[in-house]
Amino acid sequence: MTYATEKIRNIALLGHGSNGKTSLAESMLFLTGGTDRLGKIADGNTVGDSEAEEIKRQISISLATMYAEYKDCKINILDTPGYFDFAGEVAEALRVADAGVVVCGAKDGLTVGAEKAWRYLAERKLPRAIYVSKIDEENGNYKDVYTAFREKYGTSVCPMIAPIVNDAGKVEGIVDLIYKKAFTIENGKSKEIEIPASMTSRLEVLYTAVNESVAETSEALMEKYFSGEEFTTEEIISGLKTGVKELTLFPVFGGCALSGLGTRTLLDTVVDLFPSPLEGRKEESAEGTAIEANPNGPTCAIVYKTLSDQYGKFSIFKVLSGRLAVDMTLVNTRTGSQEKIGHIYKLQGKKSVEVKEVVCGDIGAVSKLSDTKTGDTLCDPKNLVTAAGIDFDPPCYSMAIAPKTKGQEDKIASGLTRLAEEDLTFTVINNAETKQMVLSGAGDIQLDVLCAKLKDKFGVEVVLAPARVAYREKIRKKVQVRGRHKKQSGGHGQFGDVVIDFEPGTEEELVFAENVFGGSVPKNFFPAVEKGLRDSIQKGILAGYPMVYLKATLVDGSYHPVDSSEMAFKTAAQLAYKEGIPQANPVILEPIGYLSVTIPDTYMGDIMSDLSKRRGSPMGMNLNADGMQVVEAEVPMGEMSSYAIDLRSMTQGRGSFTLRFERYEEAPAVVQQKIIEEAKALNEAE
Hints:
single chain; 686 residues; alpha+beta; Rossmann fold; Elongation Factor Tu (Ef-tu), domain 3; 5 domains; eight-stranded antiparallel sheet; seven-stranded mixed sheet; 16 helices; 28% helix; elongated; protein biosynthesis; GTP binding; GTP-binding
C-alpha cells in the first residue's frame, strides 16, 4: 500500500543502552500486525536486532529501519543503538527523522543516554516525546522519571498517561489523559476498563496540567481556558500538536513493551501529535537553499544508511521531494555520476518487501547502486541539488590491528573496506613509520565488534594491540666526525672518505650543505653523501625513530681516482652518521597534542587530576552554550591511548573530547629511557 505524504510519520527511538527501545519497536510492530509474534531480545528474534553480533551481545549495534501501519498511517521506526560507541548510527537516524522518542527505563531514571538523546534532538530542533519503559517492573517509578525530566527540562514536559497501581504496588494499567480512558492488558490484548475512583483527585491535577499546556498554544484556547469552558478532545489534540511542533511541549508516556501496555497510546500520539514530512523538518541544500517537501516536485533523496552483505549492497534513503520509482535515472551530486534505479524495497529490519515507488517523505531502500555512499544525494538530472549530509564525530580511540596468522593483512584490508561501506565512523590507516595498521573508532566496543565481523563475514581472525606512538629524535650539540669506507677485494676496490659537521637545525627536514675546499671531495659525489645521510636519518640512534632538526655540512674528505664511487661515498656518509650522532647528545622527542575536553562542571576535579597524571598542561577553560565546561590542555599523545575509555568512565559517558597533533617536544629523561627499552624489546621480538 502507498501512503500519501501527510499520512507518513518518521520517528527515531533514542536513549540509553538496555532501556527498551528495541522491545518498544517490537511491541509497536506486533500490535499493528507488522509481525505475527512478539520477538524478544533474550530469544534473539527481534526485527530490529538481526545481526549475529547483536543477537550474541543482546544489544543494538546498527540502526534498524522498520515500519508500522496504524490508523491509515505509515510509521517509519528508526531504532537506534544506545551504546555510545555507535553514536554514528544515531546521527544517521536523526538526519531523516521528523521527531524523536526518548526511551528511559522506569528504574533507571534520567540516564546519560537520555540526556544525550535530548541534546541531539534539541540541536536539530526536532519535536520529541518521552517514553518511560518497564513501568510494571519492581522498583520502577514512572512519576520519578517524569519528575526528573520536568526538573531538568522545565514545565514544557507534560504527562500524557497516569499508571494504575493496585494495592500491592504493581502497575496493572494506565489512564490516557488525552482521551480520559483507562486500559489494561488481558490475554495479551489491550482492554478498556473503568477509571478507578481512587484516582479521581490525582487525575484532576493531571488533567489540569494537560489543559494548561494546551491553553498556552494559542490565544483562542487560552481565552476558552480562562472562561472556564472545557476543551474538546479535538481541541486538546490540536493544541498539543501545535505545542509539539513548536517545541513548547514535550509529552511523556509510559508502558511495558513486553505486555503491550501503553503501546497503543504511544501509537495514537505518533499519529495525532507528531508532524508529517510536510509539517516536519525544513530541509536545506548544502548551499543553504530550501528543499521543499513537495510530493509533485523534482525527485531528491538522501541516502542515510548503507547495508552490505553477501547478497550485495542496499542504500537506504528518504525521499525529500518528489518520488523515487523503478527505472528512474538519478544523479549522485557528489560524484556527478548517473545511477539507474533498479529494485526498490521497503524494509522491515532485515526483511525487504519490493515496491514500485517511494513517495515524498517516505523511506525505502534500493539495491546495487554503483557509486553511492551514506550521506549522498540522488536527484533529478534537471534539478541538481545537494542535501545537507551527515556529520559524524571523528574517531577518538585507536588500536593496532594485525592478523593472528601472518600473511592475511590483505584480507583484513579488504574486509574493513567492505565494512566501511556500512560504517563511516571508523578509519584504517597503514602507518609506514610504525609499521602498523591502525584501526580508529569511537571506543573499545566498536572495535571489538568490527573484529568479530571480520572473523564471521570474512574468515580472518585478528588481534588488537596498543598503537605505537610516532616519536622523533634530534641532537643538541655540534660535532665533527670522519666517515671512511675502504674495501679491497681484487680489481677495483671501494673508497670514500668524508668529514661532516652535524649540528642542531631549525628545519624539521634534513638540511645538507657543503663547504669543501680544494676539491678534496669531487662535486659529483656530493649527491651520494646527501643520499647516504637521508637514508640514515630514517632511523635514529637511540630508539630507531626518525632523526629531525639536523643540519649536516660536508667540510672535508678524500677520494681515490679509481676506487671511489657514489656507493662508497654514500656508505662513508652513513658511517659518519652512526659514529657522530651518539656524540651529539641525542634526545627523543614526543608528540604533543592539543586536547579540548567537554564535561559537566561536577567532574572538573577528576578531569584535572587525571590530566596531571598524563603530564598534561591546562591552557584554559570556559563555558559553552550548553553550560558544559570546556577544558583545553596540551598533553603528550603517548599518554592518551586509553583516554576515550577513561573519560567515559570518569564522567559516566557525559564527557567528550577532541585531540589534535600540535608539535614535538623533548621527552623527560625517565620517559626517554622507557621508550628506548620498549624499542629494544620490540627489535628483539622481531
